[in-house]
Amino acid sequence: MLVDSHAHLEAVDDLKGSLKRAKEAGVGKIITIGTSLASSKKAIEIAKKYSNDELQIFATCGLHPKDAKGELVKQPLYRCIETLKQIAESSKGVVGIGEAGLDYHPDMTDKDKNFQKELFEAQINLAADLNLPLITHCRNAWEEILSLLTTDYRLRTRLRGVFHSFTGNWQTAQKALDLGFFISFSGIVTFENAPDIQEVAKKMPLDRILIETDSPFLSPEPFRGKQNEPKNVRIIAEFLAHLRSQPIDRIIGASADNAKKLFGI
Question: For residue 198, which phi and psi values (nearest 5 degrees)?
Fold first, then answer.
């Protein structure tokens, strides 16, 4: 059974059709990701409405540094975190905190970077407090993210999580693994211009690999540039199987077991 460990179902066109195609492709579980207070509520609603015996859907609740920007302007950070906690505790279908992390671009000010760090740190603490895994997003900020995750040793012993849609190199991956985190591969791993990510995928211990689509984004080859959907998680599994010279059933089974271990699904 395939598990799509990271999708944004509220943004997928033709959701009913997409879920039908996912089932036909052998997908049995999907985690739909919250990136703001509003989308976290929507993720829970989708999980409740569309989950069934053939295809189970779970939700996460988080504040992405870009997607939640509007909400964070309207009220203080502490209040947003309080509301996020209430949302996360409102449903047993919530299996993680995030998508949270750092998203840097070249012309970003130090003030904006510091705010993103505060937001991420608050969600690190929330994940630990609720005993839920942390879904981590990173763009151009590996050093800062790893530093925030290793600052408090007591916190480290209580924290678990995943680096979603991994884009780092093997040295970065080793540091993530040392933290006890899982690493998830999206359609990016299939791109011709992603040799570093493919190297990581080759070297990764099988018991720490997750697979995801990040739907409706990051469609794998040969559908790059088109809307992604959960059925394409099979393409990623096939690519990893070929890359690692392992049977596809082994990749599917291990990634599903890893999702169960991390998220309890």
Answer: -65, -35
